[in-house]
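Tutorial sheet, problem 5. The two components below are modelled jointly, 421 residues in total.
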Amino acid sequence: MALYTSTPHFKLEGPSDQIAIPTSSFNFQELADIYNQSRVDYIVPMPMNARRMEEYVRNYDIDLDASAVSLNSNDEITGIGMLGVREERAWITRLGVIPESRGRKTGQFLVQSLLHQARQRQARQVQLEVIKGNDPAYNLFLKFGFRQTRELLIIRRPPGIPTTRQLEDVSIRPLTVHEIAPLLQQRLFKPSWIEETASILKAGNLKGFEIKLEKGETGWIIFQLKAFQMEHVVFYTPDENRELMTRALLYTLHQQYAKQDTKIENLPADSPVWPIFEEKGYVEAFRRYEMVLEL
Amino acid sequence: MSHVLVIEDNLSNARLVAKLLNHAGHEVTLAEDGEMGLTAISDIQPDLILVDLGLPDMDGQTVVALLRQESSLNGVPIIAFTAWPQATAYHMAQAYGCDGIITKPIDTRTFPQLIADYLQNAKAAQ
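Model answer (structure tokens):
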């Protein structure tokens, strides 16, 4: 692992002569490399490149001065952790320890560093998601006082027109770009950090449509449309006829964009419409636990 | 001699796989990301494609989905190559139309025969 030589903005000292320095000392390729090294043996490896790292930092309001890279006494990089900050909330993400450096409380030290930075920025609450099955990380967060709030699904759907028949008598209207932001703001349930309105608007390339059922109920779906994939899919269904509306929204989405692969992150695992997603060809990739700490 | 396209971003893994395949008599084309892999198929006609599901940009599932849309690849086995837990990997690979999975870290003793079996099955199905 490369030696670090730049001057840090902050320097937090930890156990085993480790220090934490801000990620703003590194470029995006270096950050992606550190992150990939720390996750090489992860349950669900999700490597990044420089472009994806830059996009991640921008879309999710990662504070590079608050995020940290840890180094040992030989100035060798041992781990990384990132902090998103929005008003009085913070989000811990991309936490990882280089395999050769594990067993020296590096993860604990990185979390301490990030929480310290969150407090410095007046955050009152810190949230994170941890992959289900990553017990060491889960237990580490419990030690810091994080409590589990939700179980979330990450689901995928290959391209293809849904095989189940479209419902009759629905009217479909594309949403204008000016309608999208206000509709996102109207969501009543709490989205995960990456699906918050700020994240989705920064992701860009947004499309959406509204569906009206025969009896007049309306629902909508908004998504990021890329060349080969749809992401950041969010939707609203009325309480009455929720299942009918979900079927109509998903059928229409996948009929109109049959060539796109679809990824939806952090759908609540107890969502009553998850079986309808399965019906329309979605499969579960993995699960996360959302955890929260009040500062 | 068969031609295998390997789409894998981890250089160590890619080199190991290429070495094992070359040793077994196969020609190998390496692509370090999905875009390069999709470009490669316009230059070569692979007999088998090995796709790492954990690619850094366009992920493996999307790559498999795009490969499956190429009519020139009808009958070519696409094998998911992944460190994911086996049950999850199998489920995902099946949903995306893969013909099989090989889990990481690979067993160097059995890997060549696994590839040979997939190639043999593909040939028999033609």
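Marking note: The first helix of chain B runs from residue 11 to 23. Full credit if you identified this.
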